[in-house]
């Protein structure tokens, strides 16, 4: 490994740790500071933090890998995500920012649900916290898998070494600096990711004998005439399974918690605009990496054993060591931004919704911060063991966890913020039915094959079933109008 790459990576690690120390000095004095940064995130930080924690390693590995293998038809996943994120910022963000503060200053999604539906407060906190910890263990594992693949492919190192190194750096700044450290590092990491996704497609197209878009198109047409088609061979089920990834946004705790931390409701619109520009550029760049990377590999006879490593291979082959180091740092940024966010949300649920609720109801603020730090480490270690299999696919793990959260929390969050007739019993029913449907669908293999035809992405039946369960149980129940009119301060 050339010295230039290590210089950039060491500088990147030092920057992340430095931000963690800064956040430790500024924002870890109590649980609101540690878990939500004091609800004082500037719009740009909130926007890029939400985007970077959302996209993870799949943006630079999973999505380009799918496009490399199957063609432009896989871009429907990105289109669905973009539309889902936009609706999430418009519908959920301002309401969640206002209501979580007005409902007893809720610091976590489970505590908000408990305050919103007091008749089922304990059940909601327990069930939602269990779902968060289970699915985030899997989701976090996907990020560690990406870290392992980076070290294995780019550094000729051991896969497990990459998993543990990635986890170690993330744990350090997350444990020390809490939510502010995670958000500030996300902002920096989001900038690095976007720049990398602009640079690589342009260089692949035009550097050396690239020949530009026309030559790339001709090369791909020889591989498969339908490679650059958005619709060729696309079934209705396949289309739905791709675009309905966007439904998952409404139920991702590590994303929507950023809405709770924005400094004001008025700042949400600015954050939304920044977030959508960042997301649009990044998704287009990821599509370009996969598509143009395939053209480059075909034209130059490059062997790509694992399509999810195309970003790593291009970065290593086409750039001088200092730039390669920057691009590898971008991949680490994508991985670490999501892993840190997921670890913090998991730990906050364990600290606030288990420890404070059942073990130490009178625990002080300092004690809760300490418990949160211990929980970050515990969840991270569990995720590392899940990620131990080097054959794991990043996109597959992300898809399962994304669907689990989207189905369990998506309908619940939307209806709790917008429908006054919703009851606590309906909320519990939605959580259980959504999560159970996703788990059952995956267990039966119906996401791979359904009734002799193509599989249906598990978020579709899970989201629909949860929506129906919430409405049906709420309308049948005796509880009335748990939507409390809490006056704004």
Describe the overall structure.
It catalyses: L-proline(in) + Na(+)(in) = L-proline(out) + Na(+)(out). It is found in: Cell inner membrane; Cell membrane. With 489 residues, this protein is mainly alpha-helical. The chain has a single domain (3-393), classed as Sodium/glucose cotransporter (Up-down Bundle). It is built from 18 helices and two strands. It has a two-stranded antiparallel ribbon with strand order 1-2. The longest helix has 48 residues, at 159-206. The chain is globular, with a radius of gyration of 22 Å. It starts with a helix and ends in a 13-residue tail after the last helix.
The third-level CATH topology is: Sodium/glucose cotransporter
Q: Which structural class should the secondary elements be placed in?
A: mainly alpha
Strand runs, count: 2
Helical fraction equals over 70%
As residue ranges, the low-confidence spans are none
Helix-strand pattern: HHHHHHHHHHHHHHHHHEEH
Count of DSSP-assigned helices: 18
CATH level 1 class label: Mainly Alpha
Strand content: under 5%
Catalytic activity: L-proline(in) + Na(+)(in) = L-proline(out) + Na(+)(out)
Subcellular location: Cell inner membrane; Cell membrane
Family: Belongs to the sodium:solute symporter (SSF) (TC 2.A.21) family.
Transmembrane segments: 6-24, 45-69, 75-93, 126-147, 159-180, 187-207, 227-250, 271-297, 309-335, 368-388, 394-417, 424-444, 456-475
């Amino acid at each position: 490994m050339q010295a230039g790459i290590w210089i950039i990576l060491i500088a990147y690690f030092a920057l992340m740790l430095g931000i963690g120390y800064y956040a430790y000095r500024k924002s870890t004095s109590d649980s609101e500071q540690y878990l939500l940064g004091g609800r004082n995130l500037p719009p740009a930080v909130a926007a890029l933090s939400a985007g970077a924690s959302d996209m993870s390693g799949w943006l630079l590995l999973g999505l380009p890998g799918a496009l490399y293998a199957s063609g432009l038809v896989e871009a429907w996943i990105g289109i669905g995500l973009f539309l889902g994120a936009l609706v999430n910022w418009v519908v959920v963000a301002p309401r969640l920012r206002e209501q979580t503060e007005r409902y007893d200053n809720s610091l976590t999604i489970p505590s908000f649900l408990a305050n919103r539906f007091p008749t089922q407060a304990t059940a909601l906190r327990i069930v939602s916290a269990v779902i968060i910890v289970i699915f985030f263990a899997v989701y976090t594992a996907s990020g560690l898998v990406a870290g392992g693949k980076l070290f294995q492919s780019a550094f000729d190192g051991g896969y497990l070494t990459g998993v543990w190194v990635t986890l170690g750096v993330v744990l350090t700044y997350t444990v020390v600096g809490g939510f502010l450290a995670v958000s500030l590092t996300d902002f920096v990491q989001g900038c690095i990711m976007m720049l990398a996704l602009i640079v690589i497609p342009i260089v692949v197209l035009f550097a050396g004998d690239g020949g530009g878009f026309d030559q790339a198109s001709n090369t791909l047409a020889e591989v498969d005439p339908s490679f650059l088609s958005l619709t060729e061979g696309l079934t209705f089920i396949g289309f739905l399974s791709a675009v309905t990834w966007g439904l998952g946004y409404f139920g991702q705790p590590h994303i929507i918690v950023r809405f709770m931390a924005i400094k004001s409701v008025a700042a949400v619109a600015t954050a939304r605009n920044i977030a959508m520009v960042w997301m649009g550029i990044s998704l287009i760049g990821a599509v370009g990496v996969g598509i143009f990377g395939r053209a480059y590999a075909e034209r130059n006879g490059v062997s790509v054993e694992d399509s999810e490593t195309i970003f790593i291979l291009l970065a290593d082959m086409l750039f001088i060591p200092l730039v390669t180091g920057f691009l590898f740092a971008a991949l680490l940024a994508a991985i670490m931004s999501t892993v840190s966010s997921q670890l913090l949300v998991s730990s906050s649920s364990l600290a606030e919704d288990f420890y404070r609720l059942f073990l130490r109801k009178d625990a002080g603020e300092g004690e809760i911060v300490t418990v949160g730090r211990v929980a970050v480490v515990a969840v991270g270690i569990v995720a590392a063991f899940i990620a131990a299999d080097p054959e794991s696919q990043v996109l597959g793990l992300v898809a399962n966890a994304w669907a689990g959260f989207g189905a369990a929390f998506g309908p619940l969050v939307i209806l709790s913020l917008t429908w006054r007739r919703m009851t606590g019993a309906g909320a519990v029913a939605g959580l259980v039915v959504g999560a159970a449907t996703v788990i059952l669908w995956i267990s039966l293999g119906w996401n791979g094959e359904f009734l002799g035809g193509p599989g249906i992405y598990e978020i579709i039946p899970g989201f629909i079933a949860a929506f129906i369960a919430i409405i049906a149980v709420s309308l049948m129940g005796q509880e009335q109008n748990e939507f409390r009119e809490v006056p704004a301060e």
